[in-house]
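User: I'm preparing a small set of examples for a lab meeting where we compare how different chains pack in three dimensions. I only have the primary sequence for this one, and I'd like the structure in token form so I can line it up with the others. Please keep the answer compact; I'll paste it straight into my notes.
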Amino acid sequence: MVIADIKPENGNRTVDMVKAVNGQAIFVQTDVSKAPSAENMVKETLRAYGKIDILVNSAAVFVEATVLNTSEEDWDRIMAINLKGIFFCCKYASLR
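Assistant: Understood. Below is the structure token output for the 96-residue chain.
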């Protein structure tokens, strides 16, 4: 199992939980909103395990605001993580 997260402390904590129940996991620091980072996550997965059986796209952000109160910067961040992140991860996983 590969745990991909932008925050090492979160990713490593999850790896520790998986290992605590005798599972196997590695952490790859990943910013899914950046194509090279998503591509690196796929490459590290293939290096460690040789294949990808399942891809779970669960990175997402939410801003508690109305449409009128959402800034363009917040909107761009939401779209980059919630949509582009899925696209990048699926794209690079599919190319392998």
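A couple of notes for your slides: The helical segments are 8-20, 35-49, 72-94. The CA atoms of residues 12 and 44 lie 16 Å apart.

User: Perfect, thanks.
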